[in-house]
Amino acid sequence: MDTLALKKTANEIRKGIVTAVHSAKSGHPGGSLSAADILTYLYFEEMNVDPKDPKKADRDRFVLSKGHIAPALYATLAEKGYFPKEDLKTLRHVGSYLQGHPDMKHIPGVDMSSGSLGQGISAAVGMALSAKLDNADYRTYTLLGDGEIQEGQVWEAAMFAGARKLDNLVVIVDNNGLQIDGDIADVCSPYPIAEKFKAFNFNVMEIDAHDFDQIADAFKKARATKGMPTAIIAKSIKGKGVSFMENQASWHGSAPNDEQYAQAMADLDKIGESLK
User: Fold this and answer.
1) Hey, which end of the chain has fewer CB within 10 Å, N or C?
2) Is there a contact between 177 and 238 (Cβ–Cβ < 8 Å)?
3) What confidence score (pLDDT) does residue 152 get?
4) What pLDDT was estimated at residue 124?
5) Facing residues of 231 across strands?
6) Which of the residues in the chain have pLDDT under 50?
7) CA separation for the pair 204, 7 (Å, rounded)
8) How far is the first Cα of the chain from the last one, in angstroms, to the nearest whole number?
9) pLDDT at 217
10) In DSSP terms, which residues pair with 176 in a beta bridge?
11) Which of 199, 205, 207, 209 is nearest to 225 (CA)?
12) What pLDDT, on a 0 to 100 scale, did the predictor assign at position 223?
């Protein structure tokens, strides 16, 4: 996919996010929108996955450690063809398989049930270690929130990954700077993030999470790195693409009403038009 196609796909995924959260009348749009470009690149360019065979043995694994941004993962999976995009409107509805957090037992393409913050990276490290023990070629990717890395379990997992030289593991931190209670630096600062991962023997890169050239370069370098895991610190904008949600902590876990939904979709339609 070229850069323009990736931008168009990411914009469609953002529409899916807003639609799903609006239909549910609950959910987490801010962090979902900030991660949309990273997820687009992973599923449409980087990872070896097949919607027609979601459980194939040699597929690359993805763990959404910050499981509350399930709308972003679901919108990406739907865009990729794992299930109908129309199903996004059933998010969090009684009886729907699209629960508020990812469920590996019922959702095609979900490799790990997640939502308890801090735990996803541990599961991803286990998957990466399993590949090493089996001499398998698949790679493992996990996406963390920058507020999530306030959890101690994250650093236990990072210590283990660095010590075991898991060069088939890529940890991405969605660094949008905001969590449910406000600025991450004020709540419980995890900074400096890059230096922390470097201390655990990671190859570390810092990029603009909305620049596909930088994203592509980072994943290419991660693939070429041997003997150590990679951490990509992706500086992002919470609520990216929706004017009134951008950089607003209040949109961490709030759903748009009908009027706000119309405005959000108009914003994204305008972006779509600019990409033609």
Assistant:
1) C
2) yes
3) 97
4) 98
5) 171, 204
6) none
7) 25
8) 15
9) 98
10) none
11) 205
12) 98
Kindly report whether the global pTM for this prediction surpasses the value 0.70.
yes
* pLDDT for the residue 240: 98
Token pair, residue 254, equals: 């709030």
Own/partner contacts of 11-15, CB < 8 Å, gap of 24 or more, are: 11/241, 11/268, 11/271, 11/272, 11/275, 12/79, 12/272, 13/39, 13/40, 13/72, 13/75, 13/76, 13/79, 14/75, 14/240, 14/241, 14/242, 14/268, 15/75, 15/265, 15/268
Q: Which pLDDT belongs to residue 85?
A: 98
Distance, C-alpha 141 to centroid of its chain:
9
For tokens 């493992």, what's the residue? Answer: 140
Report the DSSP pairing between strands 169-175 and 230-235.
parallel
The pLDDT of residue 239: 98
Cα–Cα distances in Å, from 67 out to 63, 110, 273?
9, 11, 31
CB-CB contact of 124 with 153 (8 Å): no
Pairing of strands 169-175, 203-208: unpaired
pLDDT at 59: 98
What's the Cα-to-Cα distance from 213 to each of 41, 218, 242, rounded to whole Å?
Answer: 10, 9, 22
Q: Is 266 helix (H, G, I), strand (E, B) or coil?
A: helix
What is the pairing mode between strands 178-179 and 169-175?
unpaired
